Amino acid sequence: MISANDLSPSELAALLAFHAEAGVEWLLEDEPVDRLAEFEAMKAKRADARAAPQVRQATSPEVQSGRVQTATSGKSRDAFPNAPATPTVAIPDEQAVSEARFAAESARSLAELRTAMEAFTGCNLKNSARNLVFADGNAASGIMVVGPMPYAEDDRDGQPFAGRHGDMLERMLSGIGLSRSDILLTNVVPWRPPGNRVPSGREADICRPFVERQIALAEPRHVLLLGNFTARFFFGTNETIHQTRGQWRELSAGGHLVPALATLHPQDLISAPVNKRFAWQDLLAFKARISG
């Protein structure tokens, strides 16, 4: 087994980057820790905490007799009424969507929207993410590029399309005479899902008001959608990216209509280089439209 002491700084950096992209978020400690035992102990502690109030209530004389006395009226009542279930801590999805919509519509600028999203607590993804990954670039360019979600390096840097995905996107854009500084770059979901998994439908619904408000505030003239999840999210179909790519369609976001073109995500080009020729065709079509 190779020790970390035997690796050069560059090799260590490459190893850390590899683990970060794989979804590893914790480093090993000096001494081994039995996480399974910790988890079982935590469950037992919670169970004891829940059982303690019930034990105290069941052993009281009033409860043993089956009657309790109210503090206000002095009248006795049954000790075992049909009490409602313990309320859940999580915000219901419908309420979370409503709160997200209210927060998004209240923002009158991208700066205000960012502040509102930083204060928003209705999406569970925020609990596991390191950073909010907000829109970055030139909002006045008239060109907006939208990806699906932040990945590990994006979450670490708090910037959309960092790391190798960003490098590949830079090459894609430079092929048609653009750069990051020429566009506004964002994601559908602003918080990284654990392990880089695809956001659930409920998570996407909660985040929808935020990305639609970004589009409405930036008022782009053309939008480039990256990847399968993003195309399905905005076009409302179950078609794959290979079925929707290269076709101009109209995107509606908060009453703002804008022509949008879907193409492959940089990850699709990294994992399968044969996809580069398809992406190049789409990028040429995008360049022709924005130039015209």
Write the CATH architecture name of the domain at 93-291. Answer: 3-Layer(aba) Sandwich
The largest sheet has its strands arranged as 3-5-4-6-8-7
Helix content: 40-55%
Structural class: alpha/beta
From the alpha carbons, calculate the radius of gyration and give it in angstroms: 26 Å
EC number: 3.2.2.27
Enzyme class: hydrolase
Protein name: Type-4 uracil-DNA glycosylase
Catalytic activity: Hydrolyzes single-stranded DNA or mismatched double-stranded DNA and polynucleotides, releasing free uracil
Brief digest:
The protein is α/β, with parallel strands linked by helices. Helix content is 48%, strand content 12%.
List the helices and strands and how they pair.
Blueprint lengths: L8 H13 L13 H24 L2 H4 L2 E3 L6 E3 L14 H14 L3 H10 L5 H4 L7 E2 L5 E5 L4 H6 L5 H12 L9 E4 L13 H18 L3 E5 L1 H8 L5 H4 L3 E6 L2 E8 L2 H6 L4 H16 L1
Parallel strand pairs: 4-5, 4-6, 6-8
Antiparallel strand pairs: 1-2, 3-5, 7-8
Helix pairs in contact: 4-5, 4-9
GO biological process, one term: DNA repair
Pfam families: UDG
Protein name: Type-4 uracil-DNA glycosylase
Could you characterize the architecture of this molecule?
The protein has 292 residues and is of the alpha/beta class. The protein has a domain at 93-291: 3-Layer(aba) Sandwich (Uracil-DNA Glycosylase, subunit E). The chain is 48% helix and 12% strand. It has 13 helices and 8 strands. It has helices spanning 9-21, 35-58, 61-64, 93-106, 110-119, 125-128, 152-157, 163-174, 201-218, 228-235, 241-244, 266-271, 276-291, and strands at residues 67-69, 76-78, 136-137, 143-147, 184-187, 222-226, 248-253, 256-263. Strands 3-5-4-6-8-7 form a 6-stranded mixed beta sheet. It has a two-stranded antiparallel sheet with strand order 1-2. Helix 4 (93-106) packs antiparallel against helix 5 and helix 4 (93-106) runs parallel beside helix 9. The chain starts with 8 loop residues before the first helix and ends with a helix. Residues 56-74 have a biased composition (Polar residues). It comes from Sinorhizobium fredii (strain HH103). Keywords: 4Fe-4S, DNA damage, DNA repair, Hydrolase, Iron, Iron-sulfur, Metal-binding, Nucleotidyltransferase, Transferase. It catalyses: Hydrolyzes single-stranded DNA or mismatched double-stranded DNA and polynucleotides, releasing free uracil. Residues 134-284 form the Uracil-DNA glycosylase-like domain.
